[in-house]
From TrEMBL:
The keyword Membrane applies. The gene is mntP. Its main location: membrane. It is found in: Cell membrane. The chain crosses the membrane at residues 6-27, 48-70, 76-94, 137-160, 172-193. Pfam families: Mntp. It is a multi-pass membrane protein. This is Putative manganese efflux pump MntP. InterPro entries: Mntp/YtaF (IPR003810), Put_MntP (IPR022929).
Amino acid sequence: MEWSFLFFFNSALLGVGLAMDAFSVSMANGLHDPQMSRRRAVQIAGTFAIFQAVMPMTGWVCVHTIVELFSSFEKFIPWIALILLGYIGGKMLIEGIKGEEAEEAAELSAGALFMQGVATSIDALSVGFTISEYGWFMALVCSLIVAIVTFFICEAGLAIGKKFGTKLSGKASVLGGVILIGIGLEIFISGMMG
């Protein structure tokens, strides 16, 4: 592959495809915390963007170094996403049902955000196979394009979630939890069938 419009276009499309899970989780985060500050929204979108850049590069490195180990790990990806998103979503769901939508419940912890970042980007590891014919610099540029696209898509998801979170105030955590569990199940089912 050489530098061309097609390279940039394909990288952007890859970013859109990979960002869909992060978009949905961002919407759930916005629903959960409709009063989220602008700074916090940038932190969340930035976290997802970083993970979406790091995972394809990690996959690329694995393809060029320890490909046998990576291919055996690949079967665990759907399970990891299901467990992480199921846990976070279940916690949000229980908080929403119990009515614990107080300030401490609304604030997404650093650990929970980290788990969301891993869960929504772990499937991007396999993108390392897709971009394995790229040189390291092209793979890096592709990963950065994916990150930029993810950032803006997550910003949109947070904004949509915040808008509806204000309207749904009482049941936002329930809806957010259901969405996260649904995403975890979708990643799991498509990973097991694929």
